[in-house]
Structures are given as C-alpha cells and as structure tokens.
Amino acid sequence: MSVTSDKRAPGVRISDLSVVYRTPAGELPAVRGIDLELVPGTITGVVGESGSGKSTLALSLLNAVQPPGRISAGSVEIDGLGDVVALGGDDLRRARGRHVGYVFQAAQSSLNPLKTVGKQLLDLGRSHDVEDLPGLVKEARSLLDRMGMDGARVLDSHQHELSGGMRQRVGIMLALVLNAHLVVLDEPTTALDMITQATILRIIREVHEERGLTTLVITHDLGVVAEVADRLAVMYGGRVVEQGPTREVLGDPRHPYTRGLLQAIPRLVGDIDEARALPGRPPTLGTIPADGCVFRERCAVRMDVCETGEPPVLTQGPRIVACHAADMGPEAVTEPAKERQTVTAGVGDTPTTGEEQA
Amino acid sequence: MITGKGITKTFRQRGGMLGGREVKALRGVDFTIEKGGAVSFIGESGCGKTTLGRILAGLESYDSGEIVIDGVPMSSLRQKSRQPHFRRIQLIHQDPYSALNPARTIHQALDAPLSLRAKQTGRSRAWMEERAEELLSLVGLDPGYVLPRYPHQLSGGMRQRVVIARALTVDPDMLVADEATSMIDVSLRLGILALLKDLRDRLGVSVLFITHDVATARYIGLDGELYVIYRGQVVERGPVETVIADPVHPYTQSLLSAIPVLHGLEVPGEERVVPTEAVDPSQQDAACLFAARCPFRTERCVSELPVLGHDGGTLQEHACFHPQRRSVVATPAVQL
Amino acid sequence: MTATTIMPEARTASATLRRNFWRGVWRVMKRKPSRMVGVVIMAGFAFMGIFGPMLYPERLPRDTSALYAAPSWAHPFGTDFEGTDVLALVVTGSRYVLLTGLVTAVITVVLGAGIGLFAGFRRGRWDSVLMRITDMKLTIPGLPLLLVLSTIWKFTSAIEMGLVLGLLGWGGVARAVRAQTLSLRERGFVEAARGLGLSTTHIIGKELLPSMAPYIAMNMLIAVTGAVYAQVGLFFLGVLPFEANNWGVMLNLAVFGGGALTTTAALPYLLAPLLAILLLTLGIVLVVDAMDEIFNPRLREE
Questions:
Q1: Residue among C167, C175, C177 nearest C108 (CA)
Q2: Which long-range contacts link A310-317 to residues 24+ away (Cβ below 8 Å)?
Q3: Residue B221 half-sphere exposure toward CB, CA atoms < 13 A
C-alpha cells in the first residue's frame, strides 16, 4: 500500500451490492452481494471476463447503472460523499467528475470528433460550474505535460490527430482535471500496443502516487492488474470470488477460478504444456446459476455441496476467498454465507437491505 | 510451402492527387513458411503485419516482390488466375463478431463455400452435409447444436471456432490468424490457440500467426520462427525460443520488456529496455527506422539503414548495427 | 448413401428455416398490439384493392334524387354531385391508387437498391458514373416534370403512373444503400466471403442484401405512402385528366366542384378519401416499426 500524505484520497466501501437487469426472463442479477473496500491511496484491480459484472460494478461506483439495470441492494460509501446509491439528480451529476473521475472503456473513441480537446475541456468545466476556466485549462495543460505530451498542442487537436495512447491520456486528463481523487479506469489499455500499454500503466501508477488518488482499474487482463494494482479482486458470474494483495494472490491463488485463469495464460518461458485451458465458458446473465457456487460448472475441484450451498467467505489476514474447497489454514476465519457481514477490518457496519438468497 | 521475396506495399492516404501522404506498410519483406509450419509476425499496430496477412489471403494487392505458393510464382500468372492460389491461404479475422453474417445461420455460412467446393470436385449434397458436420466436430463443436443457430446465439470462442471451420471448407494450405484471440475471453483463448496448434499436427496446415502477444506466438509454434516487424521492415527473425530468450534488436527488446510481469509469480528481466515513445514516422529513410526511439543509437544509426543479417555472429537474423543480447523477459518465481 | 436420399433432408432444413422465420415474424408482430392493428389495416386495404371493385357494377348507380346526400345507412359517407355513393367511389378508386403505390415502391426499391449495391460493391469507376447519374436524377424537380409529362401522357393505367413515379423516386434509396454497402463491404463476413472465393452474386444477394433488408423493407413501405400522396396530389390539382376513378379526383371535385371548403354539404365527400389516405399511412407507419426486429435474427428470436 502506498502511503500518501494527502488526506484527500477517499476510501470506498462497497457493501453487499447487488445490481439486477430487467430481461424478458425476469430480473437477473449481474452483480450479487459484493463486498469490496478500496483503501485510500491504493490501486485496486478488478479482473473478470465478459459477463463477470466488472463493468457494472464500476458503474455502480457512480450510481450510473443504466436501465434496464438498477442497483437492487447494498451501498457504496465514498468518503466525503456518503452513500452514492442514495444520491440522485444534481448532487449525483456534480459528484461525477468532481469526486469520481471516470475513464471510459472506449476512451480512445469517446472524444467528440467535431470538437478540439480544449473545447471539450471547457464544456466539461462549464457543466460543472467551474468559475476559473483559465485555471482549468492551465491544470489540464500541466497534466498533459506531465504525461509526456505537449499539452498546448493536444488541447488544440481534434480526436483524429491523436494516437490511441494519446487519446487514452486525454481521457485520464479529463477524469482528473476537476480534481477528483477517486478514479475509475475501465479497461484502460484495451486496443493499445504493448509498448503504449506499458507507458500508460506507468503513467497511471505515477499520477496515482503524485496526486494522492484512490484508483480502481477494471480489466480482463491479469497482466495489467499485476503491473499496477496493490490489491486485486477477481470477479466471476457477478461475484467477487477472491481478493487480496496482488502479489500474494498471483503467487498463491486460492480460488480454483483464479488458479485456472493463471494456468490458461501462455507464458514466455518454461514448458508450454503447462498452460491448460479452462473447460466450459463464462456464464452470461441468463445462465448464471441462482444457487450454489457460480463457478462450479467449470471447476476442477467441485463437490456436491457446491451445487446448493453458497460458498463460505474465508478470510485470512488481508486475503478473502469464497469457495467450499479453499484451504485457508487453521487460522482462517470462516463466515457462513447466510450472515455475511462486512469483512474488512475497520469498516463500519452498514445496514443491508433484502436480497439475501436462500 | 509459401515464400515471399521483397514484398512492398505503400498506402497513399487520402488527400487527393495533391497532398496525399504515403505510408510504407511493407518495405521489402522476405519470408518462408513450410508446410505444416508456424511463423509468427509480431509488432505494434501499423507495423504492416496485418497488411502482409491480407496480401497473403488475396484481399490486398502488393506493389512489388514475388510470392511463390507451392512452387507457383504469382508473377507468372494473370491477376484472375492468382485467386485460386491465394484461396489456399485463409484469413482468420480478429473479430469473430463481425466475421459471421448476423442474418445467416451457421449452416448457411458453411453451406456457401462447401457448395462451391462440391461443384469444383463434383460431389453431392450429401457430401456437403457430412463435411459440415465433420469440420465442426474437428474444431470442437457439436454440429447438432451449432448448425441451426445464428451467430448471436454462440459465444465468442464458439464463433471463432466456426470461423476456423469455415476457413477449412476450402482445404487451405495455410491459415493466417490475425490477432485471432484478442477479442475472446481470457479463459477461452488457450482453447483456440490449442485448436490452431492441433490443426497443424492433424491436417498439416501451416499457420501464420499475427499478434502483438509474444507468449501466444510461442504457444502456437515453439518449433516455428518469429518475425519482428517495425514500420514495414523485419528487424529480427529467428527461432521462437532464441528471439524470446536472447533478443538482440533493441525494438524486440522493447516489445518483450513491455509485456506485463505477473509480480508474485514472475521476476522481471534484469535488462528491460524502455524505448521513447512512437515518433512522427515521417523521418528520412537513410537511417535505422527505430533510431529515433532507440536508447542505444549512435551516429551510424541515423545515417545508414541496417539490413537483415547475422552480423555479430548471432543465431538469429537482425537489422541492427549494434546487436547486443539482453535478458528482458520475466522468469518464473514460483511454480503453480 | 446417395445424393437423392439426402436431398429432401437439405430441403427440409431450409423449409424449417423458413418456417422459423415466419414464426419469428408472428412473434415480433404480437409484441405490440399497434403492429397487429397496422397489419389488419394493410390487409384491409389489400382486400379492398383486389376484391373491392368486384363488389360494384362497372358503372356505379346514381341516385339523382340525392345529390350531396348526408351520411346515412345506405350511404355511410353520403353521395357525390351525381348522387353516387361515396363509399363505393372510395372502394373502386382504391385499386388504381394502391396499384400505383405498389408499382412505385417496387421500382424505387429494385432500382435504388440494385444501383446502390452495385455502385457500393464495385466502387471505382462504376461507382462514380452511377452516383453522378443519381445526383443528376436527384436534381430533377419531380412536380414540374410530371406537369410536362401529363400534357403528352394521360396515365390511364395505374402501372404507367407507378412507373413514372418509381423512375422519379429511386435516387434517395440508391444513395443510402450505396453508403451502407460501402460500410458493410469492409465487414469481416464480406471479406471472408471474398477470401473463400464466393461469387459476387452470392456476396451481394446472400451477404449484403439480408443485412440491409430492414432498411429496404422500410423504404418500400414508405415509398407506397409517397406514391399515394404524389398521385392523389396530381389528380387533386387537376393536372391529369379525370379518366380514372381516383381518390385524388374525388378530392378535386369535392373542393373545386362541391365547394367542400365553404359549405358542409360536400364535406363527407371530401373527408372520405382523406380518411382512406390517413388510414393507409397509419397502417404502414405501424408496420414499419416492426421491420428492424423482423430482419434481425437476434431481435426476432428473443
């Protein structure tokens, strides 16, 4: 965990968060019963495949889940902002940008092609009632310079004049320029080249340290998380199945899914036959099992109890795993799924509403 | 066997007759792909690797150079009669979502090329039906499930398998897989890679693998060759393991250094090379193409263009005046 | 196993596909009641156009004792200046109007989609030439041309009328279809078809056309309304001689002969054809709404 003197880096506590989507087949959960804490001043990485609910989780942080989806239960407490699930209207709009900076999944294509970056920056400033627009431009320019670009020139450019990596940096600038201290990056390096990706990841790390941020990185790529994140949460079928310090989780994965995912990545050295594909395929909204473990159909160590029993949440120090088969050693704390509480130490009890599945 | 010699291709960007900017996508690329072999092209986007794949699949023309397919030089043929030869090279698209027509079932998608094939070889409808089922089984799909379905009813991984099965309908000699797994879920990628590897063994199909992910290239063809392309020039070429373990060109080293390290599971290489960022590609040609970004450049690099060769007694070929082996790749810290 | 024993199997497969398609169409239609209303209205007009005129004698009976009669059970929309039943006029006049609309729509879509597809797929010289022609065609003002044409041509048959309107109307469709073709031809599945060596006919007919089907179907339906407005307008303005029984003729006579705008007597005579046009448009608009879902297998199946 990086220690920053900046006290403004907010902490975030997500408690028992559930998001459902309305479909012809009824309301289906995209995210279910998630407990996750973003420690102030750290980078948390959320890893998951398509349909794991990771992007929905990111949107929940802004209370920006679009219909037909809605947050059906739980809370998202952000320091200095309160529970964003309860926020609405103008308060919510102001919070986005000022408190929470969001870099969209397709940041490379989310700029308006008809306006220069500078014009879009001013639009952003005006919509957030920024009085000191010259100051905003100055801040933007210094941010861009910081990220290794010619700020003045970039502000005068249109989207098509910038490369993918430059657009991504513009996206980061727009997320930070209103002085947000909580930043969410959704797939920040997808569609970028290896070298550009490495540069962007380095920039994310550096800017994070310098500005004293709390950062959440959403990605499908374990490598990206490994490079930037202090903590790692692995999502599958709308659940967080494992979380803990990145190095510990990667070095000693406890959940069969995390282990399978790591094994499925071809490596640059060693025996290529060590790489093994995970059988089956990730569930979609409609095929996520309602009871029992969401991963059981692809699991190598599945047992009878996985069919029906909600996996217990096992905690050992900073590591948390939700699995019937995980062996966390004698000192592990087991919490039966039924009476799950907030598991991270030092977090106040938040009242949870409904939606505890049988 | 498929060989290419001095393939060049220049794109003229829009701007009309007056102000069109030229982009040299390929600057004289040589390559050889054995029957059943595997060759991987790695490089950044815009380096020309995709263009080469499209040229080989007959979807793009080339300006100069010679392509020889199974002993037949393409220059000896008229444009029209080249097509059947290029058809023996099938492109697997990066995006399995757009590679299948959303309005047509898998049965229809396979039927069209199969009926063409049946007409050429004088086979019956029965053969077509059988062949469709055979090919789907070959790529690991259940024909009964897949055939009547529309693409949107299948997952990305299944779609990519259908695309591969469709490419196999014409009994190709080579598959060109252009970032064929980049849009597929991480846990399913290895399955597609393993399938391509398997097709090499079982059908003797050679695979040209185009990617920026070196590890997947290694997985497909440990016995194959790796070509590293930078701005249309092959800057390093050699056996996969050699290029990965002992890269000599600073660009290859930069690419390999940029691969994320799974900290906790791996230890980063000691001599990682961090290049400066991509610069405006309008520099003059009488210099090493990578010189502007190279941390090790000298006077010579900016006044002369290095050519591919074994200078300095390296195992692999390279285009660098100062070849120097550096260990940049991460090594495992623990065994899973 | 011989080919002959398998052939029926293959045929069943495509028959199943067709059956599934129509089942899907039914599902899409049922999704919104408004669509069913649209279908019923359109079916009603089709019935009227095909069988309606058969219900009446060649020369409609006149009741000279009841000129401009008010609506009654015998004459739901009253009678005209000669004492002819207005409803009968609307029904017998529908055939010309609808047939014209149909012919126009078919010509617009066939010419427009054909030229657009060909230009977009071939690109290069063909594209330039065809699009220049299209541009030229688009600059020809339709109404003045029709005025000129009507001086030498009587448009006694609906097919002639439809032909002229169709030839005047394909430009917009051609441009739009060409634009779509240009973007579609870069799509993976079209490239794959080229790489597999499939014929141009296959690519255009089986790959590109189905992807544009909703758009083309929509245009076709909208072209029907366009054609109805255009010809009714022409007859209303009195540009064309009153040879045929036609809604436009009725409007013209109601306004200029019956003074429907100033007196109430001829009002039903004016309103009846207007109502027919309105209903037809409504039916088409309600059905157009379903086109996207009908031709997109994903939306159709769900």
A1: C167
A2: A310/A337, A310/A338, A310/A357, A311/A241, A311/A337, A312/A336, A312/A337, A313/A337, A313/A340, A313/A343, A315/A343
A3: 29
Enter the CATH code of domain C30-301. Answer: 1.10.3720.10
Confidence of residue A351 (pLDDT cuts 50, 70, 90): very low
- Contact predicate B8/B65, CB 8 Å: yes
pLDDT tens sequence across A58-91: 989 888 888 889 999 999 999 988 899 988 888 8
Cβ neighbours for C101, distance < 8 A, ≥ 6 positions apart: C162, C223, C224, C225, C227, C228
CATH of the domain at A24: 3.40.50.300
Assess A282–B contact: CB distance below 8 Å, yes or no: yes
Q: Which residues contact A56 (CB under 8 A, 6 or more apart)?
A: A19, A30, A31, A65, A69
Dihedral, CA atoms, B183, B187, B188, B192, nearest 10 degrees? Answer: 90
* Domain range annotation of chain B: 2-88+172-332, 98-171
ipTM: 0.87
User: How many whole angstroms separate alpha carbon B26 and alpha carbon B10?
Assistant: 7
Looking at residue B81, its pLDDT comes to 87
User: What is the rounded CA–CA span in Å between residue A246 and residue A131?
Assistant: 41
Shared domain for A259 and A207, answered yes or no, is no
CB B286 within 8 A of CB B304: yes
pLDDT in tens, A14-52: 999 999 999 888 888 999 999 999 999 999 999 999 889
In angstroms and rounded to an integer, the radius of gyration of the C-alpha atoms of chain C is 23
Residues 130-189 of B with CB under 8 A from A: 155-158, 185-189
Q: Are residues A283 and A141 in the same domain?
A: no
Whether residue A152 is found in the same domain as residue A234: yes
For the B2-88+172-332 domain, the top CATH level (class) is alpha beta
Structural contact between residues A332 and A315, judged by C-beta atoms closer than 8 angstroms: yes
- Could you give the angle at which helices C142-152 and C158-184 cross, rounded to 10 degrees? 150
Q: What is the mean pLDDT of residues B116-123?
A: 89
Adjacency order of strands within the sheet including A26-38: A26-38, A12-23, A69-78, A82-83
Chain-centroid distance of CA C219 in Å reads 9
Rounded to a whole number, what is the distance in Å from the CA of C108 to chain B's nearest CA? 24
Domain count, chain A: 2
| pTM summary value | 0.84
Is residue A273 one of the residues assigned to a domain? yes
Tokens 């031709």, residue? C295
Structure-derived torsion over alpha carbons of residues A206, A209, A211, A217, reported in degrees to the nearest 10: 80
**For helices C33-51 and C86-122, angle between their N-to-C axes, nearest 10 degrees:** 110
pLDDT in tens, C1-20: 344 334 445 556 677 778 88
Residue A347 lies in a domain: no
Whole-angstrom distance, CA of residue A42 vs CA of residue A183: 11
Domain ranges of chain C: 30-301
A179 plus A295 within the same structural domain: no
Contacts of C212 (CB under 8 A, 6+ apart): C113, C117, C177, C180, C181, C184
Residue in C10, C188, C193 nearest the CB of B98: C188
Whether B228 contacts B319, CB under 8 Å: no
CA distance B111 to C9: 14
Judge whether B211 is closer than 8 Å to chain A, CB to CB.
no
Option in B105, B109, B170 nearest C17 (CB): B105
Residue A229, domain extent = 12-239
B contacts of A221 (beta carbons < 8 Å): 186, 260
pLDDT at A342 over 70: no
Q: What tokens were used for A9?
A: 């880096």
Rg (CA), chain B: 21
